[in-house]
Task: structure prediction
Amino acid sequence: MAEFGRRRLPRRSLIRVAVGALAIVAPLARSPRARGESATPVPRWGPPEAPGSTPLSLAIRNDGPADRLLGGDTPAARSVRPYALDGDELIPLAEGILIPADSFVTLDQWTDHLRLDDVTRQLTQGETFSLTLRFERAGAATIAVRVRRRVDAAGLPPIPSLVVGDLTISAAGVIPAPGPHPTPVADATPRF
Result:
């Protein structure tokens, strides 16, 4: 037994203290700053985002044969494309997102999902905009998308589900995102 001050601690307590300290210190040693790299802040709601891009979340119930979600169109962004998340890297899915037969699929930033790339205007909390989804089998379907954060979506009235063929599409939403950024002008002045 070890002794701290006048109180003696059992060996198990010392082991628990050591393991707890390692649990706190170990992630700090793996941080980019500890390795001499620059640290990029990660938003609390998910992985790092590309500027002018935001993930679309939605739920799709398929009561028929398999289909593919190929992408979409909206006035709120220059393109709406399918992506997969591999670690912290976004990978475009040229073949689209498979919606298996007789399934319920939730698409969000942590799974295969659609992204609004090159957002053309600021997406403000609470507003809605239209989005036309393109499916390989079911064709085109225009839905309403709400701009919201996951934590505060509870108090908003639900947007009705949309049925197109064998698919039922619901809970479409994006997180608030800034509008387009002006193209920066190259500055030859060194910054220290």
About this structure: The mean pLDDT is 76. Residues 53-174 form a domain with the Immunoglobulin-like fold (CATH 2.60.40.1890).
